[in-house]
Amino acid sequence: MNFFPDKKLLNNSIKHWAKLISITASAQIIVQVLGFVCGIVIIRFLPVKEYALYILANTMLGAMTVLGNAGIAQGVMAEGGKVWQDKDKLGEVLVTGLDLRKKFAIASLVLTIPILLYLLLDNDASWMASILISVSLIPAFYAGLSDSLLQIVPKLNHNVKPLQKNQVAVSVGRLVILLSTIFIFPFAAITILANGVPRIYGNIKLRAIAQEHANFKQQPNAEIRKNILRVVKRILPESIYYTISGQLVIWLVSIFGDTASIAELGALSRITMLITFVIIMIDYILVPRFSKLKNDPSVLKKEYFTIQIILLFISFFILLGVYVFTDYILLILGENYFGLNTELFLMAINGCILLFSTSTNKLLTSRGIVVSPVFYISFMIAIQFSFAFLVDLTTLKGIIIYSILTTIIIYLVRVLYFLIQIRK
């Protein structure tokens, strides 16, 4: 018996993955560089107060998107992974997911817009500015929700080249609109629109890409909806908790700090651009692969821990780079943020831990593995409440340390649950 794989088959597999990784990496480097340039332009040319309002709005946009998705994308990925080679069945899964997304999007807007208005007004924004900022979020919110579902189709089919071209086009469009407006209208609402409008265009192109592999003329399927909702029911409570938890750092800064502290936290968060790049690579390449693996505990564990070792090496080089070039990074951010060396390095540590936690969550949910919401939420609330008495929340440094500690616990809980589940 020949235990060695066919050499031709092995070479073809290596070529396929090398091409896939090179296309994804090169496009994402362009996207992340353009995103970084946009971020620096916004930090340098928006007044501190407007930048603080911009950070508040974008943080709430993340919460709105989480609630609007509520596990639908994970459910679609899990169902799509079973039928990805059948254009009609994959279309049925996608259409069902898009139908559910509309209902959840409306509920998300109703819940989050009043909270956003309160936060903006509490940080000295006028009623007019608060309303304009809230309205300006809608294009990016709508596009973000649709993108998360439409991208699943080309990802499952490893058709990433048109996907990456689309992302590059959207990033270029964002930079062009931003540079055309920020010097004349240095306001948070206009800056948010500069992000949202190109994403609407990208969303239209993305739908055309998805139609190559999925039949959009299918009708929503009751059985598929039931399966997706089964994932949603497990993820939704965690999504609600995550929405509150994700806002917690900003709320703490708002309560114990001021608008300048919010701006500082937002500026330092630019370091997470590197983290975002790695997460996107995993999402495009490894999550679909993990979703399609057979239910073999040894295979799943090997794949998962191989990814963790890769992330460990990546995190080491990120932290080393930030430690060595701290002063230069702060110089790029601008004089308003000089002296935040320790806070910047702590933010990098937080970002790397978040990389492990987010990647684990994406890998697990792609297979429908979700931590029990009752246990997870109860446990994390107790942990966060305890940490609040151990850390000085009156300083930016203390708030970042608080975030690091809670993110570590979240990661460990997910890893342990994964190991327990695959033993079954």
Automatic annotation (TrEMBL):
Major localisation: membrane
Transmembrane segments: 20-46, 53-72, 104-121, 128-145, 175-197, 239-256, 268-287, 307-325, 337-356, 368-387, 399-420
Membrane topology: Multi-pass membrane protein
InterPro entries named among the record's database cross-references: Poly_Biosynth_Transport
Record's keyword terms, sorted: Cell membrane, Membrane, Transmembrane, Transmembrane helix
Signal peptide: none
Cell compartments where the protein resides: Cell membrane
Identification of the protein by name: Lipopolysaccharide biosynthesis protein
Species assigned in the record: Winogradskyella rapida
Organismal lineage: Bacteria, Pseudomonadati, Bacteroidota, Flavobacteriia, Flavobacteriales
